Every structure is written in structure tokens, then in C-alpha cells.
User: What shape does this take?
Amino acid sequence: MENSYTSFEPVLSYESVKAHYEGIYKTMRGKYTLNLKSCGINTPEYPPRFYKKTDRELKRDLYYYGFAVYAHEMFFNSLTEFSSGYTCPKERFGSKIRENWSSYDSFLYDFTETALKMRGPGFVWAAFDCSGGRLLILSNSGYEAFDIKRYIPLFCIDMFEHSYYIDYYCDREKYLKNCLRIINYARAEKLLENIS
Ligand SMILES: [Fe+2]
Assistant: This one.
């Protein structure tokens, strides 16, 4: 993780980030690594690639845990320190938003609606659609992977209960809106630059 457990306070507490990172992320990473080792693969790759030599069940586990690791790393790196105040997109990312939405607030509204309409846990993503050449808001169920070569992730928010329960109990909307105030747009901008 590029930040410390206290970096996101007061949006996310030290206790919440530590429990999420050490309790969930590290467990997923450990299971992914164990699955890989059982296949004779010692160097994990994120996101996971297709392992031809594994049986069907093993491939499913590899993909599940591999995407869980990838999504969590994206999430922890999608946020930035609150100390410098609220963030907003600039440069190319900002112009990409304006191509599809009337304003940044409109983009945030759609992102929030997408997240709150999810019927179960998962992640909400801002991604660049390479085929359409435009920014999209996507959600995925649980750790179900999507085609990240076509839809290149720029940032995401973890909507699993374990992400917000310590700080926000059941108030998913407040958690989400606060996280959207500390998006690391400088990082998202670099990811966008690397695409073209
Ligand atoms: Fe999570």
C-alpha cells in the first residue's frame, strides 16, 4: 500500500484501514499465493492470468483470489491523504469526465447511484473503455473479474461491508461520498496517460 493506515483519517480510521488491509487483503493475498504455489508458481501476478495447467476448480480459485488482491490494491491506492483537503480531477481526467457528463458533480452522482444500486458486495470502478475511447462507471459483483484489458481501471471504491462498518456502521452512502472526496486523481491521471 502506498499510504499508511492513518493516511485517510478522518474519512477512514486507522482501525478500519488496518483491519481491512491485514484482515481481508492479506488473507486474500495469502490464499492466492498458496494456490499459486500448489500449481508450482512462485511469483504471483496481479491481475491473474490464465493458468493452463491447473484444473477447473483451481483456476476458479486463482481467478477469485487474484482479482480480490488486484481490486483491493486498486482501492487502497485509489485514495489519497485527506490532509491536503478535498480532491477533484484536473487535466485529461477532468476533460474525459466532461465528455460524458455535464459536470464533475454529475459524474459523482452517477458513481454514487451505481454503488448504492448494487444488490450485494462488490466494487465500483471508474474505468477507461478502450473500445469506445471513453470513461465509464462500472460495478462488479463480489470478486467477479471483468475484462480489465478492455475496461482499464483508474480508481475504485470497495463496497463490501467490511470496508465501512467500523467507521460508518450501515451508512454506505456516507462512506462512499466521503471516499469520493479523497480520490487520488493524480494517480488516476497517470494511469490514463499510460493508456495512450
Ligand atoms: Fe475489501
Observations:
- Residues 17 and 23 are 10 Å apart (CA to CA).
- The chain has two domains: 14-81, 83-195.
